[in-house]
Specification:
Strand order of the largest sheet: 1-2-3-6-7
Shape: globular
Oligomer: single chain
Radius of gyration: 15 Å
Helix content: 10-25%
Structural class: alpha+beta
Largest sheet: 5 strands, antiparallel
Bound molecules: zinc ion
């Protein structure tokens, strides 16, 4: 396994649209392992999309299970994900490994229905809501070359500087 390099805004490559995965090869398995190791190396991080490490393939990983007050499906590997239904809307704050210094206020659907394949190529259909739905929508945006910066509710006050919690003495 290996930690992968994260592309950081304003890298133009973050605007690239990713291609569907067609082969469930050993190479894909390795990429997923490395993506997992990479996002888990950032404390508090809830997901990653393959294009963030310069692999323009439709793969996202999400795991919000360390945020116990939110319902969730555990560790999700979503290949070629497709939202088939959006419901409601909610406003919330988002950060991103590719935009390390800022957090922004973004409106997302409150719940979604999602079709995807898992890492074995098996079909999944999931109902996802709340914080997990926000995380999944954020990661899928990366596959279409979009960042949360493109979806800020307000250019003037939708963005704030990330303030690191000081480590206790
Ligand atoms: Zn992101």
């Amino acid at each position: 396994m290996a930690l992968l390099n994260i592309l950081v805004y304003p890298d133009e490559k973050l605007k690239q649209v990713s291609q569907p995965v067609e082969e469930f090869s050993e190479d894909l398995k390795k990429l997923i392992e490395n993506l997992e190791e990479t996002f888990r190396s950032f404390p508090g991080c809830v997901g990653i999309a393959a294009p963030q490490v310069g692999r323009f393939e439709r793969i996202v990983l999400v795991d919000i299970s360390h945020k116990p007050k939110h319902v969730n499906h555990g560790f999700l590997v979503l290949i070629n994900p497709e939202v088939t239904f959006y419901e409601g809307s909610s406003l919330g704050r988002e950060g991103c490994l590719s935009v390390p210094d800022f957090i922004g206020k973004v409106e997302r659907a409150k719940s979604i229905t999602l079709k995807a394949l898992n890492q074995k190529g098996e079909k999944l259909e999931l109902q996802i809501s709340g914080y997990e739905a926000r995380a999944v929508q954020h990661e899928i945006d990366h596959l279409d070359g979009k960042l949360f910066l493109d979806r800020l509710v307000s250019r003037r006050n939708g963005l704030s500087k990330r303030i690191e919690t000081p480590t206790s003495p």
